[in-house]
């Protein structure tokens, strides 16, 4: 029996909202709350757990549904997975120094470094439409307005955004841009390793193969840094000391894995535009929820204006493309 399209959409939307909304709550708690009298600081320990569980879940799905049988460009996907892990590590570490709304708003600017790297490295200046450039300008303006509107607070309180935290977000965005270019290289190498006859579709690994190799490579690199920095011992000690922390880290990692599964499901069943709409809406919801959940995250009128510019530009571009505007696509 074929599942109606509307039911599939409800499954996709509900799955992404449920998993990533809970993921966002735990992400903030892990860095803001105190566990047995101490704050969690072992970022690479967190990445080993999160990436490792993601890879394990992907492996289970491959065993159940099978793989593509393609030759996988291990070296290229390893580098891509490593930069993706470092990008997430930097954005998570930033939560120790900035509020959650600031972190979400900053990470919503991912298209800015992706466009810059595309123009500078891949020479894609002509691939972007006027709407793409306008969107990037409005998003950049929104972030500037948000940060200039932030009240200056002394110390590292819940609402005080430090320059170091903002630098971590900027670094995370730069790594996101580099990851996008590296993923293009993975696709190119996959074609070279798996030649097809003219007229045939380009070879593509299954979504869960991509999920497995990307997360496994990130977990391996994170483990190396975890051991080298002593964070493995620190993380294990906190897990033994605080069952509450252990439970939060485990559910955080599982939520991430389930969220990725629902994202791949949405991409398979619907258009990328639907996925962008759902994930952007979820980010707006998580931002607003965080403001009400933590009084220290409260925003003033100028900061809400910055949020409106950023999310408005993203939603506006999606509506424009849905209406058939913009002949060029930015990747």
Structure description:
The structure is a single chain. With 331 residues, the protein is mostly helical. The chain is built from twelve helices and two strands, in the order αββααααααααααα. The chain has helices spanning 5-32, 43-65, 74-94, 100-107, 111-120, 130-149, 163-193, 207-228, 231-241, 243-269, 272-293, 301-322, and strands at 34-35, 38-39. A two-stranded antiparallel ribbon has the order 1-2. A hairpin with a 2-residue loop joins β1 (34-35) and β2 (38-39). α1 (5-32) packs antiparallel against α10 (243-269). The two termini are 36 Å apart. Residues 154-159 and 327-331 have low confidence and may be disordered.
Q: Layout of SSEs?
A:
Elements: H1 5-32, E1 34-35, E2 38-39, H2 43-65, H3 74-94, H4 100-107, H5 111-120, H6 130-149, H7 163-193, H8 207-228, H9 231-241, H10 243-269, H11 272-293, H12 301-322
Antiparallel strand pairs: 1-2
Helix pairs in contact: 1-10, 1-11, 2-3, 2-8, 2-9, 2-10, 3-7, 3-8, 4-7, 4-11, 5-7, 6-12, 9-10, 11-12
Oligomer: single chain
Shape type = globular
Largest sheet: 2 strands, antiparallel
Strand residues, percent: under 5%
Distance between the termini: 36 Å
Strand order of the largest sheet: 1-2
- Number of distinct beta strands: 2
Number of helices: 12
Helix percent reads over 70%
The stretches of 5 or more residues where confidence is low (pLDDT under 50) are 154-159, 327-331
- The radius of gyration is 20 Å
Order of helices and strands: HEEHHHHHHHHHHH
Name the structural class. Answer: mainly alpha
> Kindly state the mean pLDDT as a whole number?
84
